[in-house]
Amino acid sequence: MKIKCICILLFSMLSISNCVLAQYPKTMYNYNGNGSDVGIYFWYDIVLTYSVPITGHYSMTSATGADKGIFCNNIKSNAIINNTLSNVNRVIAPPSNRVSCSAYDTAIGDYYQNNLFLTVVSGYNQNTVKLPIQYDNMSTSVNFANAVYSSLFSFPVNKLLLPAATLKYLDATAEVESNNASIKSTAQTITSGCTDYRTAVIKLCQWIEANIKMQDNAPQTKSSQVLSNKLAKCDGAAHLLAAFCRSLNIPARIVNGYIVQHGVTYPTNTGSITLGSGNGTTLVGHAACEIYVPYMNNWVRCDPAQRTVLFGPQQFIKVATGMDAKDISYYGWSAFSYTFNQPTAPSLTKMDLNPSVFYSYPISNYKLVNSETFQGTANTSGNFGLLCAVPPQVATGFEDMTTIQGQPYPNPVNDLLSFPCNGEPIRVEIYDLKGTRLYTEMLSGEDTCQLDVSFLNTGLYLVRVDGETYKIAKN
Questions:
Q1: Which runs of E-coded beta strand occur in 158-270?
Q2: pLDDT of 13 over the 60 cut
Q3: Which CATH architecture has domain 23-35+142-323+361-403?
């Protein structure tokens, strides 16, 4: 099963069938300051429906240790590196003293799932079971510290310089058709003349904003359909951006989660702008795109449906990433063993997952540092495209920033090569492309280790970090 993805249009859209050539200036804002949302209560209500009432003792078991049982995606603070999500205490609270369950987590790629196994004692006498999974009193914060970054990675992208862990996010899928001829040629046309990574990504996002009409009930989800019909909801827009990026050797993955309907106000050079609306008590499913940014060594969210680029609003609760939106299972159940003590077996026939949220109060405090003008079109002059890029130490919402541990940066490098080390010593070895070892050193540091590589000649090298090999370019 999959939660229907509903998009929120944050600003009014001018409805015209074709992209008008007239250009309108838009602004990219750079912030220095911080803000936070405090007192966030998030929970899933799992409702299980059985074929008959459970009257005798009923118990689910995992015979192999690999069964998922009942599953739904988990919010987990240590699932993602470099985030400010705190106080994530999972509590499973069955409403009856006759119902209990055991739970564990399973890593699914870049995210985690709750796996639950239910036990019901005799005398329950109902055919539905409700299991609330609560995450109480969470806090998330944003700290924009000189958040606009410079373009330190060239375009077109040299695939050999990308870390191995990102390469699968260059592959095509049935939804993200990066090998489609029209998608490839359109992406190449949009980015023609671009010489840096950042500008290429922004131009791709701008094109979607200018040419794809957002509509909540749009049936198109495949990237080729969205490109052809110029109509999409959130998952379709995310699939098209991912397809554009992958066709150009820019790793892109789909991120699913929930939008909390409450507003966050950001300052502008002429006043302020608010993303979202509501009182913080309503959730809708949402899909966006995450772009791997090599010189930041991070995935950063681009949300074409909400008109944000290289930035993620605080209102988004991220729960899972995948190759495309259909690659991510929000909830369901798998084959499992169970025992029962009644004449007719109570078979699980239906599972509903009802997410809920409550914000006790929001806080935002940002200061504008400077702005950068970019071009929009008449089709999007009613949509304020908010762009903000963030450095690796910044989180822009729930579990927003991920780091591929050990990946050296920047790449290409001039003098100092940095490595995430998280307080642990790491062994760094440098080889030429023939496999000859040129240098070895043990490094240590609280968060980041650095190695002076100014002694290396210009060219390509292999850097081995605790057994994992990366290719870097020395300027």
A1: 213-214, 231-232, 252-268
A2: no
A3: Roll (3.10)
